[in-house]
Amino acid sequence: MYEETGLIVIEVEGGQKYVDTRGINPDFEVECLEPFCVYQTIKGPVDSVGMYFICKAEGNLLVVGDETKDIRWVPIDEVSRLMIEDPRQFSDVDRAGIKYYLKHRFEN
Hints:
Elements: H1 2-5, E1 7-12, E2 18-20, E3 31-33, E4 37-40, E5 49-52, E6 55-59, H2 76-85, H3 92-104
Antiparallel strand pairs: 1-6, 2-3, 4-5
Helix pairs in contact: 2-3
């Protein structure tokens, strides 16, 4: 995340369900924690699986990131409005994650 935004993750929601393999093999370590949601592309030019996490971050937001355009913070209601107006303004992969967040984050 740092390369794209300049921000450092300080907390991951679901991070209390965490394990790692430190101390087992000094040349190879793995960590596992619970994501907010997982995606898989099912059609298109790229085969991809990924995870979305809800995080708290700190630092100074970059003006230009690593392959990231138009970095900015917007309120969630604006994200919802932008998705309704033109969902194709978001990346092909991220549209599904945004839809999932808007549908499921505020249930209850």
